Every structure is written in structure tokens, then in C-alpha cells.
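Anyone else keep sequences and C-alpha cells together like this?

Example one:
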Amino acid sequence: AMAITTFGIASWVVGESNRATVANITYGAPVVIDVDGALSRVPFQALARAGGPLFSDDHPLEHLAALQLLSDDVTPPTRSPAAGTFVVSSSAANASGDMRPLPDAISEGEIVARQFSRSELMSGESVSLPGVLAGLQQASVFHYAGHAIRSGSTTGLLLTNDRGKPVLLQASDVERLKLNGLKLAVLSACSTEIGVDGSYLDADGLALAFLRAGTAQVVATRWNVESAASAAFMRDFYQALTSGQSVEQALQSAQNNARKQMAHPYYWAGFDEFGT
């Protein structure tokens, strides 16, 4: 794999020194992106080479979060199998009523659960914060479809409590869990990779919270995604993943399929993969 760093991108933008290096990357080799500052907001999947195809056409991409974790007490992920796949399709709406239940989230969860021989689906009114917290710690793959909220100093996944009232699974809740048995967390909701300041490097971001808790890989979104398009994207992603592709390769496959139907990057460049 090749690494793209903040220094390397700067050299690439202002001079010619990196052109030969980029041109000589082996076709199909994964590229690890390790950037900070404003570059953390760049959708690398949508970047095109001069006069050529998109960079992500030729290379699966992974964002490296290790530098953001080095100063913290992080439980390293283990690769031993846990109970199976835990799928949550939340129909929760927020108290103010400006976020209504997402019908596509329910169907998305059903599609994902069918891709695995061992899966637990928690859907609709059965979704509760206590149940999700318990299921997370027993799963090897976690998938969430529903609303995510980023408000004030808080980010979280919208669930219900044991009285049926809306409640958030916050990034701080996730960080307190021991998720070193969780191989993959997929957060299929709006802007799940970024914190309140708009970057995946924000300390309150959900993607970083799952990594801090010990999750090996996280797929999250860099902007607000469209519900029906996300369901189709996730169908293609899991079909590729369960056929033997890596997470990065499966994400690349889903992006390429989505581009055939909807050319605008809004529909396919919003999903990123993070690892440590």
C-alpha cells in the first residue's frame, strides 16, 4: 500500500516532485490516506488525475486514524470471531419532529441482515439504547441505518430509550465500551464520520469513537446522505464484502456501481473507510 500524507499532498499540489511517484503506484494497490487540517475534508474518491480517471477507480482507499489515537489508552482490535453480525435499523424520530422516521432504513437493515448466515436484526420500535449497547459488545460486524445527529457539542446515533423516547448513542458512550472484538462498524447515516467542527479528526466524531473503543475498521459518511441511495449502496457493498473482497475493495466496488446509476459524487463519494 502507498500512503498519502499531508506533506505529500502539499508537494504534489505545489510541485512536480510527486508526479512520478503517483504515476508508478501499482494498479489496484490500496492507498492509505493520512492527512490533517483542511485536507481531512477532501473527498479523495472524487479526485481525478489530470486527463485521466478518478484516483479511486484504480485504488481502494483507506483513511488512517492512528495518529489521532496514539496519545490515548486504546484497546487494540483482535481478529477473533465474535457472535456474528448485529444490524440496527432505527425508525426513531427526534423530539422536535424535524427528523422523521426513514422507511429506507428499515429495508436497508433487512437487506444487510440477509447477507450473513449469522445475524441479529434489531428494527423499528424494538431498537433501544440498552439493547444496542449490549449487542455491540457481542458482535463482530455492526451496521447502523437511521438518523445521526450533530448538534452543539454532541454527535450520536438516534435510538429510543426503554420508554420509547428518542435518545442518542453518543460518541462518548461508544468510547466507554470494549469493542476489541468488533471487526467492522458501518454507520450508514448522515455525517457519521465528522464531529461538531466538521472533520473526522474531531474528538467527538463517531468514527473516531469506534476506533478508540477497539473497532478494527469503520465505514462512515462525510456528509448528509440520501436514504434510498444509501440502501442501494450498502446492498452492493455487502455483496462485495461477503464475496471475499476487503472492506476497502468492497467500498470501491459499491462506489463504482453507484456511479453507473448516479454520476454526481454526492451519491457515491460520501462513504469513507477508517482503520488504525
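And example two:
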Amino acid sequence: MTNVAPTIRRLVLGAVLLALGALGWWFQATPERRAPARPTAQAPRVVKAPKPRAKTGLRIERPNATFIVEADPANGPRLVVRVLGSDGAPIEGAEVTSAPLGLFDHTDDRGLLLIGWPPGTYTIHVSAAGHGRVRRTVEAPGIVDVALHPEATISGEVVDQRGLFPGTDGSIHAILSAEDRGSANVSDDGRFTIDRLAPGAYELTADGVGWFGRLEAPVVVEAGQHVTGVQLVVRSVTLVSARLVQADGAPCADGEVELSRAGSDLRWSIWIHDGRGKAEVPPGTYAAAAVCQERTVVGPPQKIDGTEATIALTLR
């Protein structure tokens, strides 16, 4: 018995050590069994409140549609130009221009163009293919509807007193007012067509190298009308040299000599630099006036004929 007891104790001790080893292996191999998994901590989600939108939108209500147009945050409230045809349908791709402001843009498929101009009064020109151009004075911010009529055209030929085209590099102008006009180049055979005209009575002038002409009577066109067969006779021009001096004989540094013909609203300007200037002017009798450094002078009537002429004026 004495030999059996130590053996039993050794067996019991080995079993205990084996059990402890197995329990340690179990804890290392399956740590998730020791305790329930805990959720991974996440950073709190920050939700930014939306910024309030500026209440500068423009609401366009028309019989056929309603548009909500938001302002440009950088430029403030906008000028909204809506271009329509004579049938009330919007015109896509209409050109809206304002030369002094450098604007040249087109309307979208709703006929709308949004312009971020500062508040004020502006002049715009609107035109589109197949329609007459229109000039409008508008207020910004605001909404303006511009109706375009079907275009009118004027076509014909430019000839000299012999019935021949005087040369190349010519142009023709249809003038409705100082700012409402249409222009076209004259082809090599003297023919021209001026398009995109709005209804009205137009004065026709033509000019080129060495020649000028003006139709005596205005050409009246209605919306969509095409006037053909216009013949404009031009004449050779005279090269006029002008000399402008101060009372002490010193030349005018920068000035202008204006020639106006009696019974006509046409004017020709001769720009003066260092006392001299030149311009091509049609033959005729003209009143001459000059200005230099806010001083003016009116000269006697000047008869201009032939190939060259000279005008001399002295400021008092």
C-alpha cells in the first residue's frame, strides 16, 4: 500500500495539471467565449444644420408657366430676361448683348437669361435667328419680357453713277435710330441683304473705300416682310484735310472738326491730332464747327468737291 499511494498522488497531480493546461489553451484560442463581445466605440456623428437660403429669389408667373429663379449669392438679386416669340413661345439661344458692359450671352431652353448686375438702369439688345432685333431699357433687379417679331429683310444692290459696283470692301447700314440699326457686307458684285430687322422705317447708307451713298427715302418694313430690289447709288468721296490751331497759332493737341450738310442729319467727324486730321467726305457744301480743349469755333460754309479739299480753322 505504501507504494500505491504515491503513484495515485502522481496521477491525480498530472490530471490536475493537464486540466489546467487545457483550460489555459481554451482561454487563449477562443477569447470571445470568455465574455460577450462589446460594440466598438464610434466617434459621435456631427450633423451640420443647413444654412438658411437668402430670400432673394424671383418668382416669374406667366399665363403658360411659373418659374422660381434664385439669386446669385455673389452678385445679389438678378435681372431676369425672358425672350418670347410673337406666338408667346420661349426662344432658346436668343442673343442678349450690352456693349458697354461687355455682355454677350444666350437664353436657355426656357427662353431665360439670368444676369447678376448691380441695381440700376441698363440698355440691352436682343436678337435671334429668324427674328428682328430689339433694344430695351431695363431695371435691375427685375424681370423683363422681350417679344421678338419675325425678321424683316432688305436686299438689293449698290452701284455707282454708271450702274456698276464701285469696288470691294463695302458695307451697308439700315438705320432706324442712333442705336437701332442693322448692317451687312456688300458682296463682290454689289449685292446685299440686311436681316434681323424689326418693323420700322429705315434709312439706308453705304460706304466703302473712296465712295459713299445714301438712299433719299426711307425703306419701310413690317414684321416678317422681305423688301427686295433696292438700288442705292453711291458717289466718289473727297479726301478732306483739316487744320485746327489755337489763337496764338499753336496746333490743337487733340480735337474734332465736324462737318454737317444743310438739309441732312448726317455728320462727318475729322479727328484732330497735333493740329491736323483727315477724312473721306461726299461732295457738297458743309457747315464746319470745331472743338479743342473745351473751346469751339464755327467756320464759314465749306464747299467740298473734287478729289481733295482743305479746311483751316482757328480757335478764338
